[in-house]
Each structure stands twice: as C-alpha cells, then as structure tokens.
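How it folds
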Amino acid sequence: MNMKTWVKIFKALGNEGRLKILKLLFDGQERTVTEIKDSIGISLKATSKHLIALDNLGFLESSGKKGGVWYKIDLRNYLKVKEILRKIF
C-alpha cells in the first residue's frame, strides 16, 4: 500500500465512532444501520456517515435484503489492518 492509502486508513481508525463500528462488526455478523446505531449509541446520521467512510475504504461489505441494508466487516484486502484491530479488540 502506498503512503496516501495508509493516511486514509489511519484517519478512519482515528475516529472513535468508526472504531466502535469496527469493534462491533469484528465478530463477522451482519447488522443493519439501526442495529449498529443502537449498539454504539450515536445518531443515525453519524452512524451512516461512518459506515459510508468505512465502506469507501473497502472495510465493509453491504447487502440489501429484508427491506434494508446489512453491513459486515470485510478486511480480506487489509490483512495488516485486521491484525492491528485484532490486537486492539
């Protein structure tokens, strides 16, 4: 990975809300935005913004089903990041 990519990754990981989302999803389970919001205790708008940022980095996989969007963590392309998060969580 190049330096710009690492800067984006560390900016994403430097946000408490995003870290809470990653910690919640680290178990591999799929969750809706509402479930994530309720679990980490921030607004729906803030949760959505954090999910978009994490999704744009490629940290999440999303699927539309049951009338909503379901998110789960996907760090297959970020094994070093996954290793770091495993040590943190």
Q: What stands out?
A: The longest strand covers residues 60-65. The domain at 3-88 is CATH 1.10.10.10 (Arc Repressor Mutant, subunit A). Residues 44-57 form the longest helix (14 residues). The two ends are 23 Å apart (CA to CA).
